[in-house]
Specification:
six-stranded mixed sheet, alpha/beta, 13 strands, 12 helices, 2 domains, globular, 37% helix, five-stranded mixed sheet
């Protein structure tokens, strides 16, 4: 399969199977080239263009800006990931998002509106070996920012194979809950209040920061007055202190104040096998220390149900379409 076809197919699959449930929109075409505006600085005197595998966008709940994620899609085997230097890839992506800001060619292809938007980069690294857990944290910690030359107002987010496996499972979990009518099509994602940034608490889309975090919380319906929450959690689950912090988070955000409020907690496939027992122990300790004289809050804590999130291996279905992708 030609690389351009593989990238287009990969973009289609991840749009449908992952980001659709987080309410990201794909903008413009897939695998397009657009004119570079800094030919000498970006060393584009011959090619004169930058690539864009796919561009996603969503509304940021805190700033009300439309966030555009100029996305570079990669598919590698584990051995390639282990040996690969990602510095050139990140440097190229930094140049792309710097140039996109001033490129009329990019804006004609991808920009929906000319006000209140930010363009950032997203490196999506899929591992096409079956169910291999590959983290890029250690590899990327050695990359020097001076080598990337990222403009100060720009960000590059990275979804590595572990992130992608998590998001595949969460998106599948959302899909299953919708099919069971446990959440409705107008479900909303939770955002905590910040000191200098107000928010309506539950918003339509999940930000990239939310997807990179350890907990994704969904309200079952925007129309519901009660908080019927689904909380997807991917912490390590190895200590009671970790769950004390999670319960503090629920309490601080007023999730435990009404008898009709319910929390269903889903643990990641990678969370420790003993996490359910540790959570139960932590819950009892938390009630004894903080809420034993508060009947409603104690009842809400006791009512939290815990389940393992179903794990889906997407490598086989993805491989059929993108195994032919070549390194660029």
């Amino acid at each position: 399969m030609a690389e351009t076809e593989a990238i287009a197919k990969m973009a289609e699959l991840i749009s449908k199977d992952i980001f659709y449930f987080f309410r990201w929109n794909q903008i413009g075409g897939k695998n397009l080239n657009w004119a570079c505006e800094k030919l000498t600085e970006h060393k584009k005197e011959r090619a004169k263009t930058h690539p864009a595998d796919v561009v996603f966008c969503y509304k940021d709940p805190y700033s009300n800006n439309t966030i555009y994620l100029h996305t570079d899609l990669k598919s590698y085997g584990k051995k390639t990931i282990d040996s690969k230097d990602f510095t050139p890839t990140l440097k190229s992506l930094a140049q792309q998002i710097e140039c996109a800001e001033i490129s009329d060619s990019w804006k004609e292809k991808y920009l929906k509106e000319n006000s209140n938007y930010l363009i950032h980069g997203l490196l999506f690294v899929f591992n096409h070996d079956r169910d291999a857990d590959v983290s890029l944290i250690n590899k990327l910690s050695s990359v020097k920012q001076t080598d990337i030359r990222l403009p100060p107002d720009k960000k590059i987010f990275i979804l590595d194979p572990i992130d992608i496996g998590w998001l595949v499972d969460v998106s599948n979990g959302i899909s299953q809950l919708i099919s069971k009518n446990e959440i409705l099509s107008d479900y909303r994602f939770f955002y905590p209040q910040k000191t200098f940034q107000g928010v309506d608490s539950f918003e339509e889309s999940a930000t990239i920061e939310t997807l990179k975090s350890n907990v994704i919380i969904i309200k079952s319906s925007n129309k519901s007055r009660s908080l019927k929450l689904k909380a997807f959690y991917r912490g390590s689950g190895t200590t009671t202190e970790e769950f004390q912090y999670l319960l503090d988070y629920f309490r601080h955000n007023q999730f435990l104040e009404h008898n009709e409020d319910q929390i269903e907690l889903f643990f990641s496939n990678n969370t420790d096998a003993n996490a359910v027992n540790l959570f139960d122990k932590s819950r009892l300790d938390y009630i004894d220390k903080y809420t034993k004289d508060q009947d409603t809050m104690t009842g809400c804590l006791q009512a939290i149900s815990v389940k393992k999130l179903d794990h889906i291996d997407k490598s086989q279905s993805f491989n059929e379409n993108i195994i032919g992708m070549l390194e660029r």
